[in-house]
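Retry 2 of 3 after timeout on previous attempt. Resubmitting structure tokens to design endpoint.
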């Protein structure tokens, strides 16, 4: 099993880091422990993680500012991926931000807060559904992002929270270098999409790989973990790495100890019996 995969024109380790949890509760406001947030990012990079997923609407602005404080000037091999098309209300709500002005401002906010001249990968997140993909054209906002790419502000473009129809529409507009959707051991609606992307060498980046705000709960998962001497979350991550070669993981945490557990999942071997049990959880 390969431990690396191509993302745009870069090659990254398949086990990356998602920065969402560095913000405060509900991904809003500052972290409870600023020093701990800095420590997690520095430990991640020191441990060989070279793919960090973030967005300027986390906080908002909080996670990008922490990433810059912790890691700037960035190591040459570090790939920072961000996403646009939402903004936050004063109450922490998630509000679609699909207009030309909002998308352009979001790219510039990410550049400024991360301290970058160009964004390596920007995912356009479809907001036709807030929590799950929902049909609706993405042509207008994606065309704006493609224009910003032509201006040199964005190197590569990905899609997030999209349906197969939206993915096909997006690929007619510009090159799509990754797809970031909700997927994990128990939530497997994108099985066909993952296999189709793998055949074309395009990465699939599951968000909520451990279940999201409600962690995965499964007696079968717990039993496999106990037998292998691992945590259930480590087993869930190991299963994703073995699900398809194009899956790139971005589990998030605000704890150095938990980060180390996640990294160790990349070395966990799943035997045939474990895989059979785990494959059956979604059924």
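Retry 2 succeeded. Sequence:
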């Amino acid at each position: 099993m390969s431990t690396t995969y191509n993302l745009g024109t870069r090659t990254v380790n398949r086990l990356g880091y998602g920065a969402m949890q560095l913000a405060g509760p509900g991904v809003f406001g500052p972290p409870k422990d600023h020093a701990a947030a800095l420590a997690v990012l520095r430990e991640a990079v020191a441990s060989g993680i070279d793919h960090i997923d973030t967005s300027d609407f986390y906080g908002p602005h909080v996670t990008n500012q922490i990433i810059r404080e912790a890691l700037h000037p960035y190591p040459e091999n570090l790939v920072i991926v961000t996403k646009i098309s939402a903004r936050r209300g004063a109450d922490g709500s998630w509000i679609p931000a699909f207009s030309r002005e909002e998308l352009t401002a979001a790219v510039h906010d990410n550049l400024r807060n991360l301290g970058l001249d160009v964004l390596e990968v920007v995912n356009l997140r479809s907001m036709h559904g807030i929590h799950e993909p929902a049909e609706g054209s993405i042509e207008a906002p994606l065309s704006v992002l493609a224009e910003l790419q032509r201006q040199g502000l964005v190197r590569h473009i990905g899609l997030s929270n999209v349906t197969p129809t939206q993915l096909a529409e997006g690929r007619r507009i510009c090159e799509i270098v990754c797809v970031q959707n909700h997927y994990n051991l128990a939530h497997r609606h994108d099985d066909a999409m993952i296999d189709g992307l793998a055949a074309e060498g395009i990465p699939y980046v599951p968000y909520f790989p451990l279940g999201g705000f409600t962690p995965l709960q499964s007696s079968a998962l717990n039993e496999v973990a106990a037998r292998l001497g691992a945590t259930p979350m480590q087993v869930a991550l190991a299963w994703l790495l073995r699900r398809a070669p194009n899956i790139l993981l971005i589990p998030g945490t605000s704890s150095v100890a938990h980060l180390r557990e996640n990294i160790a999942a990349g070395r966990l071997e799943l035997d045939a019996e474990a895989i059979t049990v785990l494959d059956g959880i979604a059924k």
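Attempt log closed. The chain has one domain: 4-215+247-252.
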